[in-house]
Amino acid sequence: MDTTEAAPVGDAPAAPVGRTEAAPNDNTGLGPTGRPRRHIPEPPVLASHGPAKIIAMCNQKGGVGKTTSTINLGAALAECGRRVLLVDLDPQGALSAGLGVAHHDLELTVHNLLVEPRADTDDVLIDTHIENLDLLPSNIDLSAAEIQLVSEVGREQALGRALYPVLERYDYILVDCQPSLGLLTVNALACADSVLIPMECEFFSLRGLALLNDTVAKVRDRLNPRLAVAGILVTMFDSRTLHGREVMSRVVEVFGDLVYDSVISRTVKFPETSVAGEPIITWAPKSGGAESYRTLAREVIHRAGH
Questions:
Q1: What pLDDT does residue 159 have?
Q2: 45 backbone dihedrals φ, ψ, rounded to 5°
Q3: Which CATH architecture has domain 47-304?
Q4: Which parts of the chain have pLDDT scores under 50?
Q5: Where is the composition biased (Low complexity) (predicted)?
Q6: Per-chain mean pLDDT for the chain
Q7: Where are the domains of the chain?
Q8: What is the DSSP letter of 29?
Q9: Side-chain-facing half-sphere of 267: CA atoms under 13 Å
């Protein structure tokens, strides 16, 4: 289903907030999306690595679990034997901080890859403490990049030029975009193979999807013909609330199989991992949140065939 046709999301009726009913019975064979549970095969072992598939983690609405999902999907993919590079494209540096990097003290960041005089990508790369997971960090310096890039020729391709030298080393590159649809986000979309959209399971999040779909369609038409929507990841889901279940039902109704079967439920573990500077995969490896991201990683690999 082409999501550029999906404007009716803004017309979804509002559900009563805070109203609760008993959660659906788990024994029905239905998953949290309301669809029958589907088997996701174990990822195959790779004989070699690269070239990377670039996935832009994008939603112009803040507070939807985008950075948390970037960190934990990246860690789960790495656990599956994939080589993963995380790119922090948000001047707030939340992705870098979430991996325990003292980003305010860094001399070289993504900013130095985008504007003159450009640094080498290898000089900016940081090894995380997680096997197969690397990082291109960011901090507040990146906030100047949009202004500095405006007058440059090929300004939308700056990130793609920076990532090109390392494509063969990785299987996946996840770009954590800032919560806006500005030039930095357009840079991510211009070099990405696909967009993964984390969406809080809340009525007003539905409205923002139409605007994001429109931006993706414009970038596809004008800058990056291969750009596709990889899928929509529902986050902060609470099956106990009628509102959450109605929003879930509406998302699945409109977007169909673009909605991942994997769903990220609310849990206190995620704020704890942010403070610890670790993914939930390593901080609480047996938690429900960790298992959800492992399932998502298998689903991403299965869909990508990589």
A1: 97
A2: -75, 130
A3: 3-Layer(aba) Sandwich (3.40)
A4: 1-25
A5: 1-18
A6: 86
A7: 47-304
A8: S
A9: 18
